[in-house]
Amino acid sequence: MKRLLRYLITGITLIVLQTAVLPHFLGMQLRPDLLLILVLYSSLSNTSGSGAFYAWILGCLLDVFSGTTLGLYGIVMLIIFCASAGVGRQFNRENKITMVVATIIGTIAQVALLVFMLLCFASTPQSWLPIVKQLPLQLLLNLSAIILFTLLREPLKDFVNRHKGHSPTRWSHTSWH
């Protein structure tokens, strides 16, 4: 239950950051797809069925937050999780390049799946064209985000591990004024 809660809180935080906060700072419609990166990261580290369920739920929540067709990102994130979890078993998950390659392939797969779904279910056949045109910039933004995450991952882990042993009484002596 703790794992589910932690994954959902992280996912919802990234969705809010991706849909509400980053557009104000970046000043553009495109932004890194933080949820895709979370789904790829979790699929490489957790290949269980519960991870697929979490990916689907978070994809559906992204649909709710961003106002797209309900269920579109849910099914796309589920397919990406299942495919990358199956393929990810063959690679060294500890290698930092694995996540960069997964981000490249995952971004291209996400665009391909979105185009496929829109071609199958959209009322206007031209609705997929903007998605394809934005692929190079989306790829660059996702790669920038994963490189930044990779660089910050170890210092953040060290920081959390250093402060894990502190009791609440120890923190209460700190002056917050």
How far apart the termini lie comes to: 36 Å
Give me the CATH fold name. Arp2/3 complex 21 kDa subunit ARPC3
What's the assembly state of these chains? single chain
Give the overall shape.
Answer: globular
Radius of gyration over all CA atoms, rounded: 18 Å
Number of domains: 1
State mean pLDDT (0 to 100 scale).
83
Q: What is the top-level CATH class? A: Mainly Alpha
List the total number of helices.
Answer: 8
Instruction: Please give the CATH architecture.
Output: Orthogonal Bundle
- The proportion of strand residues reads under 5%
Give the H and E element order: HHHHHHHH
Walk me through the topology.
Blueprint lengths: L1 H25 L7 H12 L3 H18 L5 H17 L7 H26 L7 H5 L1 H30 L3 H5 L5
Defining traits:
disordered C terminus, 78% helix, mainly alpha, globular, 177 residues, single chain, Arp2/3 complex 21 kDa subunit ARPC3
